[in-house]
Amino acid sequence: MSELHKFIFDGLPVRGQLVRLTDAWQEVLRRRAANTQTGAWPPPVAEMLGEMTAATVLMQSNIKFDGALIMQIFGDGPVKLAVAEVHPDLRLRATASVMQAVAPGMRLSEMVNRHGQGRCAITLDPRQRHEGQQPYQGVVPLVDEGGAPLQSLAGVLEHYMRQSEQLDTTLVLAADEQVAAGLLIQRLPVQGQDNLSQSSVAREDDGALAEDDYQRISLLARSLKREELLGLDADTILHRLFWQEPLLRFAPQVGGAGPRFACSCSRERVASMLQGLGQPEAQSILDERGEIEVGCDFCGQQERFDAVDVARLFTPAAQQSPQPGSVQ
């Protein structure tokens, strides 16, 4: 069962989270593999998307925001776009569009940043928007401060958090066909504030000592190996890494309160999209193909609209005759 663990270091300006996506991630992969038009993702793409999904869960659960957090990686390589979306209640979905062959062992820069055009975008999309309100979006290139291509998603997101959020962050990410997992460590401000445990950190030189605390814990986190993150349970990982640290853990989020696959697509949304195209465009597709078929890239659900369905979309409700079996 997929799970999210949150913890703090008592008296220290450092917090952390550990996510392990099992059934939720396997459902993402299963639905993609079941799509006869696309088939399963190549292993390097699936690994990148799994890391994105784990990281998006960590970032969403780290903020107080009533809306979806959407991570997008896009660029000029064989992977045109990869998307992971997580809602405040930890419902998640993810997908990737592959335009060319992806060789085994391809790295991030080769998949999406072949000619330096790769970008990472983080979007916060409010659940209920005020009039004129636009989603917040931060975008960073897939290069470091010196312009060198970043080779790992963890490196991209650490760079993003420093540049866009001014937060020192350590990320360890890994994914395979069974598990997508991630560990996040973040340094919190100290001066004039309490940490998450509501205990003040009063020291002669808060800045320097706080930096020492974060760097020590960050170094421990970075010692976590890929096979350990994927193969060990949360209790074992946290004990092995931080057994000498003042670790305080919160109740894990699992089951209905934890990360789980869910897609927000619906026939009604597809109908609205077709109405947005306009009747001439919809009729043109109908004339060419006999019906309009729209598939969800996230869950694989197919919606079909025949000539009668399309006519109803563009007929005012007052002029529509009741459908068979409807109750007036």
In short:
This protein has helices spanning 23-34, 43-60, 108-112, 153-164, 206-222, 226-231, 234-242, 267-277, 279-289, 307-313; strands at 3-9, 14-21, 67-74, 79-86, 91-98, 119-126, 136-141, 169-175, 180-187, 247-249, 253-254, 260-261, 292-295, 302-305. By secondary structure, the protein is an alpha+beta fold. The protein has two domains: 3-261, 3-Layer(bab) Sandwich (Hsp33 domain), CATH 3.55.30.10; 267-319, CBS domain Like.
The level-1 CATH class of the largest domain: Alpha Beta
Q: Can you give the mean pLDDT?
A: 83
Q: Can you tell me the CATH superfamily of the largest domain? A: Hsp33 domain
What is the total domain count? Answer: 2
Rg for CA atoms: 23 Å
Strand content bin: 25-35%
User: Would you tell me which CATH topology of the largest domain applies?
Assistant: Hsp33 domain
Helix proportion: 25-40%
Order of helices and strands: EEHHEEEHEEHEEHHHEEEHHEEH
Sketch the major β-sheet. Answer: 6 strands, antiparallel
